[in-house]
Structures are given as C-alpha cells and as structure tokens.
C-alpha cells in the first residue's frame, strides 16, 4: 500500500468512527428524552389523580353550598310567610280591639253609672300591678310601662 492509500484508510476509519459516535450519541440522547418523557407522564398521572380528587371535593362543596342556599331560601320564604301571617293577625286583633272598645263605649252610654271614675274592669290594654302598700298608701293602677299611676289614701 502506498502512502496515499493509508491516508484514505485512516480518513475512512476516522469518518466511520465519527459516524458511529454520532449515532451512539443520538441514541443516548433519544433514550434520555424517552426516559424524561416517561417520567413526565408518570408525574402527570400522579397529579391527575390529585386533581381529580380535588375536583370531586370542589363539586361536593359546591353541592353543599347549593343545598345551603336552597335551605336559606326556603327559610326566608317561611319567614316571609310567618311575617305575613303575623301582620294579618295583628290587623284582625286591631279590628277586634276596635270592636271591643266600641262595645265598651256603647255600654258606658247605656249605663247610668258609667260616669264614675272606677277603672274599667275589662280593660286589657295595659297590665297592672296593684295592691302595693307604702306608708299607709295603697297604690293601684300602675302600669308596667309606667304610664298610669293612681294613689288612694288608706281609709
């Protein structure tokens, strides 16, 4: 072999070695990329399970919130219904009170003794505390709201 052939042989060996080196490096990088992709998929699967669990918890909390809202709405409707019932009852009682007062007035007009200062024995508009004695005086007719007070000297 002459010198030129040896040079070409050495160049060919170097080129083949470089090609083999490039192929091995590419395979190694490809293997590393595949391994990294598998690792990322595994991590994603683990996180997907956690995310799915959190989604279920969020759905449960949302369902609880809807149930609580529905319950609150139902209670508000019940409260409104009760308020309307109470208002209707107050109105009925006021009408009945007016009727009772009118009957008392008519009875006072018919009764000749109605001019006395005796308290109305059927007056239920004020609650009274009576019979308290202080230093020879008996108090009666004192309302719990403190509006009417009458003091009678002990006789």
Automatic annotation (TrEMBL):
Biased-composition ranges, Basic and acidic residues, are 68-116
Q: Which UniProt keywords apply?
A: Membrane, Transmembrane, Transmembrane helix
Show the ranges annotated as biased composition (Low complexity): 124-149
Q: Where is this region: Disordered?
A: 61-155
Transmembrane helix in keyword set:
yes
Where do transmembrane segments lie in this chain? 6-26
User: Transmembrane helix as a keyword?
Assistant: yes
Give the protein name, as stated in the record. Uncharacterized protein
From which source organism is this entry? metagenome
């Amino acid at each position: 072999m002459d010198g030129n052939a040896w040079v070409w042989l050495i160049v060919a060996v170097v080129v083949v070695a470089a090609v083999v080196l490039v192929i091995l490096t590419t395979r190694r990088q490809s293997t590393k990329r595949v391994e990294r992709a598998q690792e990322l998929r595994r991590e994603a699967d683990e996180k997907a399970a956690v995310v799915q669990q959190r989604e279920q918890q969020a759905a449960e909390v949302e369902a609880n919130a809807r149930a609580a809202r529905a319950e609150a709405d139902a209670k508000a409707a019940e409260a409104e219904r009760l308020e309307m019932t109470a208002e209707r009852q107050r109105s009925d009682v006021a009408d009945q009170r007016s009727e009772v007062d009118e009957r008392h007035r008519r009875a006072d007009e018919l009764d000749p003794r109605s001019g006395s200062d005796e308290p109305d024995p059927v007056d239920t508009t004020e609650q009274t505390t009576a019979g308290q004695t202080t230093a020879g005086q008996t108090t009666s007719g004192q309302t719990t709201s403190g509006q009417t007070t009458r003091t009678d000297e002990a006789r």
